[in-house]
Amino acid sequence: xxxxxxxxxxxxxxxxxxxxxxxxxxxxxxxxxxxxxxxxxxxxxxxxxxxxxxxxxxxxxxxxxxxxxxxxxxxxxxxxxxxxxxxxxxxxxxxxxxxxxxxxxxxxxxxxxxxxxxxxxxxxxxxxxxxxxxxxxxxxxxxxxxxxxxxxxxxxxxxxxxxxxxxxxxxxxxxxxxxxxxxxxxxxxxxxxxxxxxxxxxxxxxxxxxxxxxxxxxxxxxxxxxxxxxxxxxxxxxxxxxxxxxxxxxxxxxxxxxxxxxxxxxxxxxxxxxxxxxxxxxxxxxxxxxxxxxxxxxxxxxxxxxxxxxxxxxxxxxxxxxxxxxxxxxxxxxxxxxxxxxxxxxxxxxxxxxxxxxxxxxxxxxxxxxxxxxxxxxxxxxxxxxxxxxxxxxx
Length: 395
Ligand SMILES: NC(=[NH2+])NCCC[C@H](N)C(=O)O
Known about the structure:
- Keywords: Arginine metabolism, Cytoplasm, Hydrolase.
- There is one protein chain.
- By secondary structure, this protein is of the alpha/beta class.
- The protein folds into 2 domains: 8-66 and 147-391, L-arginine/glycine Amidinotransferase, Chain A (5-stranded Propeller), CATH 3.75.10.10; 67-143, Arginine deiminase (Pentein).
- Helix content is 32%, strand content 23%.
- The chain has 13 helices and 19 strands.
- It has helices at 39-55, 63-70, 74-84, 87-104, 107-116, 131-135, 152-155, 176-186, 227-239, 276-279, 303-311, 325-333, 354-362; strands spanning 8-13, 59-62, 118-119, 141-143, 156-159, 162-165, 194-197, 209-213, 216-221, 245-250, 264-268, 271-274, 283-289, 295-302, 317-319, 340-343, 346-350, 366-370, 387-391.
- The strands form 6 sheets. Strands 8-9-10-13-14 form a 5-stranded mixed β-sheet. The chain has a 3-stranded mixed β-sheet with strand order 2-1-19. Strands 5-6-7 form a 3-stranded mixed β-sheet.
- It is globular.
- The two termini are 12 Å apart.
- Bound molecules: arginine (ARG).
- The site of arginine (ARG) has 16 residues, from helix 7.
């Protein structure tokens, strides 16, 4: 994986399931959804998204299936039980009850608990009284659900032939790291894959990681990825020779712009679609290794200038969506700028972003439209909902 736009061969998606049924008006904000999705329809929309990709010759890997087969390995099963049980929340006694219960269930049931969580009333019965059981509401979570697994972009990201497992910022998403770790460590397809970023210390989310060109990685720094995360990922990709230049791009710390890919995605080898209101303000720091082997940081300078230099092209084109500010803001919120390229000049986008899509087409970009009325309620578009695993090289 050396670019954002090379012909897509294999992609990791998550078909949403019971974890979405955990969302209620009381917990949706904390669980990072803006409304309560209609789950059956969300699944239909997701199936249609997967079909569009398959129709373009892309192999679609589904996270729930990968997780179940990874858990068939007894070591993965034990690690899965460990990842599900939070001693601090349950206390030692109840934690032991849950651990021994989960150790006895099959990989399908354990995968379900890891994804959809478990409430106190769903916990197995045990002898004796438990203050923790008594003082928690029966429908409180003993194991938190992970509704944002849908956004596979964020929890892991491939850079060249290596995978970086994210260290997610929001408490509602932190346990996703453990799920992806299990899949990459134990699924037969991935267990040989080398890791690009071992240190799980500083926050990095894949929605902020953009492969602008072979050897050039942009990393958004904002609500999710910290400067420390960007710097350690940069050091790590330099040490592994996966890139020669990293651009650290500050983005506004707000829900609308939680990741770099909410304001900008690549639609061709030399072109991006970008939220017009970000176009003139986006800057970048350029990171590279000096002749003495030490890290250098230049800038900041305008993002488009820094990117073109690093990519060694005359100009990084911005598709001029020319939208009025209100339409631009509405379509940005609905992930109009969050496209997934399946090949240079061919992208998947939400159909609802009528004007952005029209402008993209006027600029010669083919837009494969998908429905996202329910999928979009978690604030993520086609790029957020996909983790490319293999793309053909551009040369
Ligand atoms: N790459 C992205 N833009 N991902 C969107 C993630 C949305 C998710 N609900 C969150 O708040 O984390």
